[in-house]
Amino acid sequence: MSYSCQxxxxxxxxxxxxxxxxxxxxxxxxPLPASCTALSxxxxxxxGTAKVGSTLTAVPGTWGPAPVAxxxxxxxxxxxxTGATAAIYKIAAAQLGKTLTVTVTxxxxxxxxxxxxxxxxxxxxxxxxxxxxxxxxxGTAKVGSTLTAVPGTWGPAPVVxxxxxxxxxxxxTGATAAIYKIAAAQLGKTLTVTVTxxxxxxxxxxxxxxxxVQIV
Length: 216
Fold this sequence. Notes:
Elements: E1 2-5, E2 11-16, E3 23-27, H1 34-37, E4 45-47, E5 55-59, E6 69-76, E7 79-80, E8 88-90, E9 100-107, E10 114-117, E11 127-128, E12 136-138, E13 146-150, E14 160-167, E15 170-171, E16 179-181, E17 191-198, E18 202-203, E19 205-208
Parallel strand pairs: 11-18
Antiparallel strand pairs: 1-2, 2-3, 4-5, 5-8, 6-7, 6-9, 9-10, 12-13, 13-16, 14-15, 14-17, 17-19
């Protein structure tokens, strides 16, 4: 006695009858055999760069028999990431240095639920700040006047910005605000301002303005 599956998924029992070698089919009353309830489930893959701020996309492959409802769970070092249950995942700073996987689960009425997990990514690398524009300076290059650093718009927001004013390329002690009042010691020198952006999970980046004319 053996089982087979009809198109509708109903099992039948194939029994050899007596005489003439004729085979008759009788509806089965027992549970569905595993071959009738197993989903065809490929191992998923993920595309994208394993880098903070970048997006990964799960590629589930073709499950069957169609239609199969698919759900997703992203994991970091094998631990489920709360809320990361879509096919697309934007990598958060908390995942820096960890490897990521995605588990795809298929469900279909009358079939056994099945899950498949993708191969892990490389360890997540720090993100890259951008845009990170070159700052500019407004104001008059004159002793006693005030210069203002204009950093531009850094991203992805929010980015913490710090400032360092320099005279002839040498950092001016204490000149670490966006505004700098030019001291007499800077007479005859040119000034620049370096803006540094920091954000958790991202590589720190610095940009320096063009120099002013000589201070008069």
